[in-house]
Specification:
14 helices; alpha/beta; 13 strands; seven-stranded mixed sheet
Length: 397
């Protein structure tokens, strides 16, 4: 009897081990996965610029679907490589509706209902009743969710249950919220065999502290969600938030030391924001009301949940920090190219780049945010040999 029990236990352990190892999505940051995902994110830019994304797409990925433009100028793609599927959300565009989505930044409950023309979206992103999420990105998912769910089922029908969700900027925000949304769906709506992993690039904040704490426990602790940012990029610091003055709380002792991490300017900024938080809240609410009216004028009547009386956005965990871009480089004074003495004293490399970097302007805010510069930053950190052969003229798309 004991021997039979030992055999049964051994067989069960093998089955568990096999089921765990059979998944193509493993926990942990995978630099190759991250590189593949940011290449896919650049698909939209390449199509806009060159009418083709063939040059940037990573090997082995087949594009199965590109959605029509939905809601506030949102688009997503579906890819497959072997047994792994990918949902790739487009970032912000130049269209007014896309920016209205970003600017509708009040916090609404993480569980509720949004009614749009001909559609009711019952959503849940967190169990904590104090949790709140970005109203604009939640509204975007209200328009997107039917098409997204249909595409997930199509992947499932072809035996694909391991799915990476990705996106850059606004697309990264939608990736994070989609992951949270999937986790709270019933097995009737979403097969529980599905496993999701997130690589969100350059994304703004999507929820308050309570939402982030729950998200971190569910997905960051299990190493199945990553935020990849350039610290010089302003977008991950948005929307404007007073964050319960978390900076001065966490750095109070640094005020009395020589700690290099302490920033007096940051302390003053958060202190002023905290001092005027009620006025900030009122201003944001009034502004968002105006934004929602403009969205309604384009998309029809919308019924949103009541807003939460806070602007307490927080940063999701598992942050991977990338260096700012080296390129494109813009000379402070282009006349130096006609100065023979200067050129003789200042050597350039084979690409014509001056070794003396002080002759170039500081990288602009927009260049720090561009998806191509996130791609080259990942190459620089994790794939230096590939980074060396990327033509500088392409940097900064």
């Amino acid at each position: 009897m004991k021997f039979s029990l030992i055999i049964l236990t051994f067989i069960l352990s093998l089955n568990i081990a096999f089921s765990q190892s059979s998944s193509d999505l493993q926990p942990g940051f995978n630099s190759q996965e991250a590189l593949d995902m940011i290449q896919l994110c650049n698909s939209f830019t390449y199509i806009d610029l060159y009418d083709s994304d063939e040059e940037i797409l990573p090997k082995g990925y087949k594009k199965l679907f590109t959605s029509p433009v939905i809601g506030m100028d949102n688009v997503f793609q579906i890819y497959r490589k072997g047994n792994v599927g990918v949902i790739n959300f487009r970032g912000s565009t130049e269209k007014k509706s896309s920016w209205l989505e970003n600017m509708s930044s009040t916090i609404i409950p993480a569980k509720g209902t949004i009614k749009t023309k001909g559609n009711t979206f019952d959503y849940k992103f967190a169990s904590d009743t104090a949790a709140g999420v970005h109203s604009g990105y939640t509204l975007a998912l209200a328009y997107l969710q039917k098409e997204i769910m249909q595409q997930v089922r199509h992947l499932n029908d072809h035996g694909v249950y391991d799915i990476i969700i990705t996106g850059h900027s606004q697309g990264g925000a939608l990736a994070l919220l989609t992951n949270a949304y999937f986790s709270h769906l019933s097995k009737r709506k979403l097969d529980k065999k599905n496993r999701f992993k997130v690589y969100a690039f350059a994304h703004p904040m999507v929820g308050n502290i309570e939402f982030v704490e729950e998200y971190n426990k569910a997905f960051c602790a299990s190493k199945m969600s990553y935020s990849i940012i350039n610290p010089e990029d302003m977008v991950p610091k948005m929307p404007l938030s007073y964050n319960d003055s978390t900076y001065w709380k966490s750095h109070i002792m640094a005020m009395f030391s020589d700690n290099e991490e302490f920033s007096q300017n940051k302390m003053i900024q958060e202190g002023l924001t905290l001092l005027f938080q009620k006025k900030l809240q009122a201003t944001v609410e009034k502004f968002s009301e105006s934004v929602e009216k403009q969205i309604e004028s384009e998309l029809g009547e919308i019924t949103m949940p009541d807003t939460k009386k806070e602007m307490n956005y927080a940063t999701i965990g598992n942050v991977i920090k990338l260096p700012p871009p080296e390129y494109p480089l813009e000379l402070k004074d282009s006349t130096i190219l006609e100065d023979d003495v200067f050129l003789a004293d200042n050597p350039r490399d084979k690409n014509g780049v001056f070794e003396n970097k002080s002759v170039y302007k500081k990288t602009s805010m927009s260049q720090n945010h561009k998806p191509y510069n996130y791609y080259t930053a990942i190459l620089k950190v994790y794939f230096p040999n590939k980074y060396k052969v990327v033509e500088p003229k392409l940097f900064g798309l």
